[in-house]
Specification:
By secondary structure, the protein is mostly helical. It has one domain. 65% of the residues lie in helices and 0% in strands. The mean pLDDT is 84.
Protein backbone atom coordinates (compact mmCIF):
# COMPACT_ATOMS: atom_id res chain seq x y z
CA UNK A 1 0.00 0.00 0.00
CA UNK A 2 1.45 3.36 -1.00
CA UNK A 3 1.39 6.23 1.48
CA UNK A 4 -1.02 9.08 0.92
CA UNK A 5 0.94 11.90 -0.83
CA UNK A 6 -1.22 14.56 0.84
CA UNK A 7 -0.07 13.49 4.31
CA UNK A 8 3.60 13.16 3.34
CA UNK A 9 4.43 16.85 2.85
CA UNK A 10 2.05 19.44 4.29
CA UNK A 11 3.86 22.29 2.51
CA UNK A 12 3.80 21.04 -1.04
CA UNK A 13 1.81 22.77 -3.76
CA UNK A 14 -1.63 21.34 -4.49
CA UNK A 15 -1.95 18.96 -7.39
CA UNK A 16 -4.47 19.70 -10.17
CA UNK A 17 -6.99 17.19 -8.78
CA UNK A 18 -6.76 18.50 -5.24
CA UNK A 19 -9.38 20.95 -4.04
CA UNK A 20 -8.87 24.14 -2.05
CA UNK A 21 -10.41 22.53 1.05
CA UNK A 22 -7.56 20.02 1.25
CA UNK A 23 -4.97 22.78 0.87
CA UNK A 24 -6.65 24.88 3.56
CA UNK A 25 -6.80 21.90 5.91
CA UNK A 26 -3.08 21.20 5.44
CA UNK A 27 -2.24 24.84 6.09
CA UNK A 28 -4.39 24.95 9.24
CA UNK A 29 -2.76 21.76 10.46
CA UNK A 30 0.72 23.21 10.00
CA UNK A 31 -0.34 26.42 11.73
CA UNK A 32 -1.74 24.48 14.67
CA UNK A 33 1.59 22.67 15.05
CA UNK A 34 3.39 26.04 15.00
CA UNK A 35 1.07 27.43 17.72
CA UNK A 36 1.55 24.31 19.85
CA UNK A 37 5.32 24.61 19.58
CA UNK A 38 5.14 28.32 20.48
CA UNK A 39 3.08 27.70 23.62
CA UNK A 40 5.17 24.68 24.64
CA UNK A 41 8.31 26.80 24.47
CA UNK A 42 6.57 29.59 26.40
CA UNK A 43 5.57 27.15 29.14
CA UNK A 44 9.21 26.12 29.49
CA UNK A 45 10.84 29.55 29.14
CA UNK A 46 8.82 31.39 31.79
CA UNK A 47 9.65 29.04 34.68
CA UNK A 48 13.28 28.72 33.56
CA UNK A 49 13.57 32.50 33.56
CA UNK A 50 12.08 32.95 37.00
CA UNK A 51 14.06 30.08 38.49
CA UNK A 52 17.42 31.20 37.11
CA UNK A 53 17.26 35.00 36.98
CA UNK A 54 14.09 36.25 38.66
CA UNK A 55 15.37 39.83 38.81
CA UNK A 56 15.80 40.05 35.01
CA UNK A 57 12.85 38.91 32.90
CA UNK A 58 14.15 37.81 29.52
CA UNK A 59 11.57 35.20 28.53
CA UNK A 60 9.55 37.70 26.51
CA UNK A 61 12.41 38.39 24.07
CA UNK A 62 12.36 35.02 22.26
CA UNK A 63 8.57 34.93 22.45
CA UNK A 64 8.22 38.38 20.87
CA UNK A 65 10.83 37.57 18.21
CA UNK A 66 8.95 34.36 17.40
CA UNK A 67 5.80 36.39 16.73
CA UNK A 68 7.04 37.63 13.32
CA UNK A 69 7.41 34.15 11.76
CA UNK A 70 4.18 33.13 13.46
CA UNK A 71 2.36 36.11 11.92
CA UNK A 72 3.74 35.23 8.48
CA UNK A 73 2.59 31.64 8.98
CA UNK A 74 -0.90 32.87 9.93
CA UNK A 75 -1.04 34.99 6.78
CA UNK A 76 0.11 32.02 4.68
CA UNK A 77 -2.45 29.71 6.30
CA UNK A 78 -5.17 32.26 5.54
CA UNK A 79 -4.12 32.21 1.90
CA UNK A 80 -2.89 35.78 1.71
CA UNK A 81 0.15 34.68 -0.31
CA UNK A 82 -1.87 32.66 -2.80
CA UNK A 83 -1.67 32.96 -6.55
CA UNK A 84 -4.18 35.15 -8.35
Amino acid sequence: MTPDPVRQDPYRSPTPGEGPDTTAARRRSGLLNHFLAYFAVAVVLVPVNFLTTPDRPWFYIPLVLWMAPLAVHVAWAMGLFGRK
